[in-house]
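Could you help me review a protein record that somebody else here produced? What it holds is a sequence and that sequence's fold in token form. I have pasted the whole thing underneath without changing anything:
=====
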Amino acid sequence: MRVLVSTRLPEEGFSELMKKFEVIFPEKEIFSKEEVVQIIPEFDAFIPTFQFKVDRDVIGAGAQGKLKIIANYGVGYDNIDVDFATKCGIVVTNTPDPVVEPTAEMAIALMLTVARRVSECDRKLRTDSSIKWGVMENLGISLYGKKLGIVGLGRIGKAVARRAAALGMKIIYFNRNPLDKKTETKLKARYAPLGQLLCESDVISLHVPLTESTFHLINENTLRLMKPTAILINTSRGPVIDESALTEALTNHKIFGAGLDVFEHEPTIPENLKKLDNVVLSPHNGTATIEDRNAMSRFASQNILRFFEGNKNISRVN
């Protein structure tokens, strides 16, 4: 049996899978869509990363051949036409466990970097000899004692809350459904409707999947609710934010700053956004550690191995 991997990844994490399957990686960084459509009928399983769009053409080609499972390499699966895969009888899985802690680390890193203007000052020290040194120069915002609003208190949101509490932050959150009181007490978190959270919070961190209801969740109207000193962090999916509205808000200092690991039209970032000093940009790096790449590979491999063994304990999303 054969497994196709869309992107060149370290083989270490696939060692168990490679004992039972022939695993094929691209010779270069990533297979093209045309290459995958041509060869995917010969494979029993496919492991795509977020870089690779698994659309109807790809799924249809696989369904005409041997393809039985698409084991997505990541927790978000908006890169896959899950509905069409379901119609074709193809199982889709994701890797929710390995992404939790590194993504939470990235969210906290962005908060600190924006609040203390770390990347801005680093950049100016390297390129701008006119940067001023002094007691009242380059002032940022302290996170200690500030209110963190977490939009989506799932597993990643909870991991962010634990870290934020250690920084002395106060936690409020918005979910479609409030958590039970025991969990709220453990996390020292208080529920608030979205509008209230946006008004109250000093930092807003987004941890929601991309769905019809979360598309442009942060837009011109919701940005107006935020404090002029607020910081917005996004490590979820780019289209959760209306990028044009955010760029306008940052340009006119309607909020203090933003930290973005994801973008609306990746890998394209608007030039106007790149020119701003009050935004920190990261190239979808939330899970980009050596340890986590291998953990994600093992998890995707585990989904495939268990699926073909008839074990239903897989992270199935359809």
Remarks:
- The first strand starts at residue 2 and ends at 5.
- The radius of gyration is 21 Å.
